[in-house]
Amino acid sequence: SITNTIQLPARLVVNTDQQAHVSAGFSGLVQQVHVQVGQQVQQGQALASLLVPDLIDMQSNLKILQSQRTLANSNYQREKNLWQQGISAKQDYLQAQNDYEQANIMLQAGQTRLKAYAGSANSAGRFMVKAPISGVISSKDIVIGESIQATDQLFVLDQLNSLWLEFVVPDALVNSMDTGQRLSIEVPNTTQRYDAKFMYLSPSADAQTGRYIARASVANTQLKLRPNMQVLISVPSAVAAATNSIVINAQAVQQ
């Protein structure tokens, strides 16, 4: 069978499933910014360094808890030896043991909290903002000397090896689009051709325009496609049976 197609204008957009919004999780003062917009970064790479008062408090508290555990352990060992020698009462020994266990729990909780914020006990209040994924810095809203809040969005990282394609589907084709359907796209005024995979059609028309918006995914392994680029997508319009026919290119016919 022959599949007739029509070309529709489409726009490439960022695949938000492969995007990361980076914030610090702390309020602090920006000391250094290590990257620029458009720069390719790797997962775990340092993006910026901050001086964080809350981190200083947590580190100081951790040192206090370490000292308290050391003291509690020393007292526990002393009471244990006295009780074993019959000098001290068992109640004193059990109380010292309980104090040591409580100090150990508090220390572990402080270490876990510091680790949850990706902090280090010896960083002197400095916190490193790192890339959660590998990608391109598409947005940067941070400068040296700036005071930031914990929820401020500092960077946006995009993985551009896979993009989304959005286009308007004519009413006549709304019921003919199937999830997973293979489509093809081309970049105007070039010889570039790419395969796309149909993903999604809006269940209802836009309230203002009455249009149905569709989305497809396209692999961009060579990174030649860019978000917001305008392309043409070929969408099947009809299928004609050709069981007993020979099909040739119409441009090959000579008169």
Mean pLDDT: 84
Radius of gyration: 31 Å
**What's the shape?**
elongated
Specify the structural class: alpha+beta
Strand order of the largest sheet: 1-10-13-12-11-14
- Counting H and I runs of at least 4 residues, what is the number of helices? 2
| SSE arrangement, N to C | EEEEEHHEEEEEEEEE
The low-pLDDT segments are none
- Looking at how many chains there are and whether they match, the oligomeric state comes to single chain
Beginning-to-end CA distance, first to last residue? 26 Å
Strand content: 25-35%
Could you give a short account of the major beta sheet?
Answer: 6 strands, antiparallel, barrel
User: What is the number of strand segments?
Assistant: 14
List the helices and strands and how they pair.
Elements: E1 2-14, E2 19-22, E3 28-33, E4 40-41, E5 46-51, H1 53-84, H2 90-116, E6 126-130, E7 135-140, E8 147-148, E9 155-158, E10 162-169, E11 182-186, E12 193-201, E13 212-219, E14 230-240
Antiparallel strand pairs: 1-10, 1-14, 2-9, 3-5, 3-8, 4-7, 5-6, 7-9, 10-13, 11-12, 11-14, 12-13
Helix pairs in contact: 1-2
Walkthrough of the structure:
With 255 residues, this protein is an alpha+beta fold. It contains two helices and 14 strands, in the order βββββααβββββββββ. Strand 11 and strand 12 form a beta hairpin. The mean pLDDT is 84.
